[in-house]
Design brief:
about 45% helix, five-stranded antiparallel β-sheet, eight-stranded mixed beta barrel, 27 helices, 31 strands, about 725 residues, alpha+beta, single chain
Length: about 725
């Protein structure tokens, strides 16, 4: 016998097996990766009757024999499975298994069976179907045994063996009085009677929920000869009064005198427990234990019926964790799961008992409120939640602060059914994210139109690149000491055929969502480099141009190679190109970022940190990465009306100078801002005071009017 791990390409073949048909590809992959393959040569024994069992087997190829003593009771081939009842009943093996031909089996341990199969209702039904089919096989075999019994007028060894060694319960009882004639060892043991006591019992003593009239109705087709067997699931009562569920099938032997019924049953207690557990799994979130989408919808619809009857209102609060993906990616999915569990616990501690709370999906949670003055209730609840999440979570010894974006919808104002109210709250939640996150937004009717517009844009953006609908604009940067343009930042615009110029905030998130940002980012790089080449050919001495790199671009392993290829293709020197990256992008994968930036810097490309001070604000990375400039975010510039209001901007300039980095202030709109920034020795500015982003032709005119030259400030 030999074993090998990771069976290859089994998913498609598994889908032809009833047990696995309803499992998703992802679940099958997990099942395969956590199980292993066993190879048997002809004559190899897999296990013996009475051996302890902690696994089941699926036959991938070959044939095996299932033996009782020296008799082969079954022959199984590809697609069959066996051993599952050992896992369900926690009993030793009930037969010996030997290979008839060279065979390959997938060994599934009990843990994987419970995780991937017992938690799936369709897979459980497949197991029940198999149990039922095996009962039928046993009935057929037993029928043959009774024929032998009739011919020989005595209970021969084969029939005795079949009765007492099977894992099924077997009942033989009179077809008129329903008094038991014989029970096998398994049935006697399960019922808790002594063998001699069973001859005084009738079927209805162990099945008191079944009346004689009901049973007669069920077996009427047997008596008429319309069918050969019938079956049902019923509760059996033990001698001590306890009960257990049993699936039982009956045949009628009319050739006997008097006629007898033969029943073969299977105790399905474990299966029933698993089914009940699975019902919980289908209604409760496996990670947090909170109600899931299915259950919260039931609860919401129940609340709606009551609200309609009592003229009450309902609020649906849908909340999403801001930046959860960054936390999940940077700290790992295990830490992400721990955070979600901690969030659920905090919400449960906060939420009063008359409120329903659930995990909807991913990092989305939902709370239902009902009663009078519901809008006031909802506003207060949302404010409390935002405040509640200001306290950090301790995950793996690290404090993490997460904020919430909350969308709110109301019944009856925003919808009359659960699905609609959740959808409206979801729409409002995404508007809250666009407003800057860590905030609340109530649903408004025009949001639906906005959502539809976004849906249309999402479809259009997939074709926009191939239709050449994107255009690059350029915003100049001005050196404050020389009043000279020292470069441009290139900014992409979408010239939509029917909607005109679409603002970047409307389409950049869509480009990231559809991953179009990767080919779009490459187009921006290539277009900017071509423009640099054009300016060089026009005689401008040093046309320094910056390009923003997105998180998706930066995660590409071929980023550096792509940039190098574009530079060579456009025949420019790397020193004319600058890349701008946000702090959060750098910190998502600091090691990878450091390696890529080092390669770009060695090529001669300038590197700037965009929106400095608004991201992680960890100063340690400034010495880790090969940087040239810090861009002071407009948030630190917009309120500058005097030197007293420039404290943060001055601190950034001082820090940059100590590290020999240049500084560029974004969003400069007034002469006062420009004057103060010059006073604190900021190197350069960009903003509407100088120029809004303009097409290449207008940018060229700005160059011409700026001493016909461009000078770099931090070589």
């Amino acid at each position: 016998m030999s074993t090998s791990s990771s069976p290859d390409n089994k998913i498609e073949s598994f889908k032809s097996i009833d047990l696995f048909k309803q499992l998703t590809d992802e679940t099958l992959e997990l099942l395969i990766s956590n199980s292993h393959e066993v190879t048997l040569n002809p004559g190899d024994t897999l296990f013996h009757d009475g051996d302890p069992g902690d696994s089941m087997y699926v036959i991938l190829s070959g044939e095996i024999a299932i033996l009782k003593g020296n008799s082969m009771i079954a022959r199984k081939g590809r697609g069959n499975y066996f051993g599952e009842m050992t896992l369900i009943e926690d009993q030793p093996r009930s037969a010996t298994v030997t290979a008839l031909t060279k065979s390959s089996l997938l060994k599934i341990m009990k843990e994987q069976f419970l995780l991937h199969l017992a938690s799936n209702p369709q897979a459980l039904m497949a197991v029940l179907k198999t149990v039922s089919e095996r009962s039928r096989e046993n009935l057929t075999a037993l029928n043959e045994g009774i024929k032998i019994f009739k011919a020989q007028k005595k209970l021969n060894a084969n029939l005795q063996h079949l009765l007492d060694d099977t894992t099924n319960e077997i009942y033989i009882f009179d077809a008129e009085s329903y008094r038991f004639i014989r029970l096998n060892t398994r049935a006697i043991r399960n019922l808790g009677y002594r063998e001699i006591e069973t001859t005084q019992l009738t079927l209805f003593d162990v099945m008191p929920n079944m009346t004689r009239e009901n049973f007669e109705e069920l077996v009427k087709p047997l008596r008429s000869g319309m069918v050969e067997e019938t079956g049902f699931i019923e509760q059996h009562h033990r001698k001590d009064g306890s009960t257990y569920p049993i699936e039982i099938r009956f045949k009628l032997q009319t050739t006997e005198t008097p006629p007898v019924f033969v029943g073969i049953g299977q105790d399905i207690s474990k299966l029933t427990e698993l089914v009940n557990e699975n019902i919980n799994l289908t209604r409760y979130d496996y990670l947090t234990g909170l109600p899931n989408r299915t259950l919260i919808l039931e609860q919401l619809n129940t609340e709606l019926v009551q609200a309609n009857r009592e003229n009450l209102s309902i609020a649906v609060l849908l909340m999403d964790l801001d930046e959860f993906k960054i936390i999940n990616d940077s700290m790992g999915h295990t830490a992400g799961d721990l955070l979600l569990k901690a969030v659920a616990e905090r919400l449960q501690d906060w939420s009063p008992t008359n409120r329903h709370i659930a995990r909807l999906s991913g990092d989305e949670f939902i709370i239902l409120l009902s009663g009078d003055s519901i809008e006031t209730q909802a506003r207060k609840a949302a404010a409390d939640l935002l405040k509640l999440f200001q306290n950090p979570f301790s995950i793996n010894g690290q404090d993490i602060v997460v904020s919430l974006s909350i969308g709110i919808s109301f019944y009856p104002k925003d919808g009359n059914d659960g699905e609609t109210l959740i959808r409206q709250a979801d729409t409002a939640m995404y508007i809250a994210k666009e407003k800057g996150k860590n905030t609340t937004c109530h649903y408004l009717s025009d949001m639906e139109a906005q959502a539809k517009k976004k849906l249309i844009l999402e479809g259009d953006i997939r074709k926009a690149l191939e239709r050449n609908e994107f255009v690059l604009y350029y915003q100049p940067k001005l050196a404050l000491d020389s009043e000279t343009i020292v470069g441009f930042e290139s900014l992409v615009r979408w010239n939509h055929p029917s909607q005109g110029l679409v603002p970047p905030l409307d389409f950049i998130p869509l480009a990231e969502k559809t991953r179009l940002i990767i080919p779009l980012g490459e187009w921006v790089l290539r277009t900017a480099c071509k423009q640099i080449k054009t300016w060089l050919d026009m005689g401008f001495s040093n046309p320094h141009t910056a390009v923003n790199l997105s998180a998706h671009q930066f995660s590409q392993s071929n980023l550096v190679a792509t940039i190098k290829e574009i530079i060579e293709e456009t025949e420019i020197q790397a020193k004319y190109l600058e890349v701008e990256i946000t702090e959060s992008v750098l910190m998502e994968n600091a090691d990878m970022a450091a390696a890529q930036l080092r390669q770009l810097s060695e090529m001669g490309i300038k590197i700037s940190i965009d929106d400095f001070g608004t991201g992680y604000s960890s100063l340690s990375y400034l010495n880790t990465f090969p940087l040239n400039n810090l861009k002071i975010d407009r948030a630190f510039v917009k309120d500058i009306t005097s030197m007293e209001h420039a404290t943060l901007a001055k601190a950034i300039v001082t820090l940059a100078k100590s590290l020999n980095l240049g500084t560029i202030a974004e969003g400069v709109e007034t002469e006062t801002q420009k004057h103060v920034l010059r006073s604190i020795e900021c190197d350069a500015i960009q903003g509407y005071l100088l120029s809004k982003p303009v097409p290449a032709e207008e940018a060229t005119k700005l160059l011409t009017s700026s001493k016909n030259t461009i000078l770099p400030w931090k070589e």
